[in-house]
Amino acid sequence: MAVRRRPSTASAAGEPIKSDKQLLKASDALPLPLYLTNGLFFTLFFTVAYFLLTRWREKIRSSTPLHVVTLSELAALFSLFASVIYLLGFFGIDFVQSFVSPSSRAAHDPWKDDVVVQRKKSVNASALLSSTSAATTTATAIDDNSPALSTDDEEIITSVVVGTTPSYSLESTLGDCRRAAAIRREALQRTTGSSLVGLPLEGFDYEAILGQCCEMPVGYVQIPVGVAGPLLIDDEEYTVPMATTEGCLVASTNRGCKAIHMSGGAGSVVLKDGMTRAPVVRFSSAARAAELKFFVEDPLNFDSLAVVFNRSSRFAKLQRIQCSMAGKNLYMRFTCSTGDAMGMNMVSKGVQNVLDFLQIDFPDMDVIGISGNFCSDKKPAAVNWIEGRGKSVVCEAVIKEEVVRKVLKTNVAALVELNMLKNLTGSAMAGALGGFNAHASNIVAAIYIATGQDPAQNVESSHCITMMEAINDGKDLHVSVTMPSIEVGTVGGGTQLASQAACLNLLGVKGASRDSPGSNSRKLATIVAGSVLAGELSLMSAIAAGQLVNSHMKYNRSSKDVSKLAGPR
């Protein structure tokens, strides 16, 4: 790998910066931050203008000659002239600055000039640059993903390093998301003294994540995507993409898919489809809070509330409102369908509409928060386990005795006993909440990352109870997974990124369904449940057959010397 040194600057050694771009600007008038200088001159302009107009009117009324001026009026005239010159100069009147410095007539980049101005204003710039320069000498290699930096970029990097240019503003200032990421990355390496070798920069569309997926990017993490399948569910075959760094996970899920396929496939049913949001409001008394509770839960009022709620989107359809009180605080759990979107933003807008509507009849209602955790989002909660959130799905299959023996390498009786003692009794002993399964979260997380879902919602989406029962005189195995809160969408968020959209396309659920809104997201939820079923089958069989340790030693251990793979620190 080619090794190059970062170019040093004169300021790093404490010497004055000499550059033909170092031009005198109107903003150099005072040694203050730019916003304070602007505010001062704006205030000065309007104040003295008002003063002079007032004095002029008084002189006219008293027949005093206008050319007779007092010392205060003379000072006001001077201040007015100075403020006008500053404001004209700051807002780009070239002929004003040409009187100050003839060289300013040359065309130049205002962004680069502003960087120079801010660098001159930084009191500790030289000391900070010297320390960062010394720190970065320990990391002499720059990763190959970072392109050679131009002189203009060096100016901006220096400004970020010394703190005069906020790192978060680079995209809006430069208008180039990839360049902003490269500059932020280099500034980060210089300030921390740590190399980002191994973290890719090139080959990613930074425009696609602006304002919706990630702020202040410096690169992206590579996660391998494997495929399991075909998964035969509801008479359709799917090849399931899984993004993971856990060896053996894809292979194990693939074995479960094979067992299901050889047994005739799995079936699924979506019991519920509704996203939730639960604001918390407070009243002066519990009695008053109860009045709103009774009003909201009254079936006669539901239609009017639904009309207000549904204005948020043509896909939003209010289904129910469930209330719970804690003293004088009221929690209202709104549930609505959201089409093919996961729907958190949609339901939040609808809730806000209803709160504004209720405020008319309940003006003493104090809205504490749009989310009161009775939803409950990204936290293990009994309300999701019992009532459901997102898609509630049950997936089942009958695995033939021969398949259990030849593919899963175990027997029906062993699987049934293990499921009872591990997934049911063992989880109960642990006080599990929705965790009556072997490793549902493994499969959910891998599919979520691959398809652009919110990985944090793996918390409640992995709520699952795995059931196994011997049927047909103990010869065959009936296995099912019940997952009450699978939160997925096929539009919005990370689903719009190229890689994640490709994985959704592989499953045939990319984007919104035109024929039946919501069907794509429901199909994705059934695929998640079917994949969990396959994963549960395979892992439980490995444990029953005593193969778990051996398989992980084979597929989840590396023989490489990782110390040689690590980049410079």
Automatic annotation (TrEMBL):
PROSITE patterns: HMG_COA_REDUCTASE_1, HMG_COA_REDUCTASE_2, HMG_COA_REDUCTASE_3, HMG_COA_REDUCTASE_4. Its EC number is 1.1.1.34. It comes from Malus domestica. Pathway: Metabolic intermediate biosynthesis; (R)-mevalonate biosynthesis; (R)-mevalonate from acetyl-CoA: step 3/3. Belongs to the HMG-CoA reductase family. NCBIfam families: HMG_CoA_R_NADP. The chain crosses the membrane at residues 32-53, 74-93. GO terms for molecular function: hydroxymethylglutaryl-CoA reductase (NADPH) activity. It is a multi-pass membrane protein. Keywords: Chloroplast, Endoplasmic reticulum, Glycoprotein, Isoprene biosynthesis, Membrane, NADP, Oxidoreductase, Peroxisome, Plastid, Transmembrane, Transmembrane helix. The lineage of its organism: Eukaryota, Viridiplantae, Streptophyta, Embryophyta, Tracheophyta. GO terms for biological process: coenzyme A metabolic process; isoprenoid biosynthetic process; sterol biosynthetic process. This is 3-hydroxy-3-methylglutaryl coenzyme A reductase.
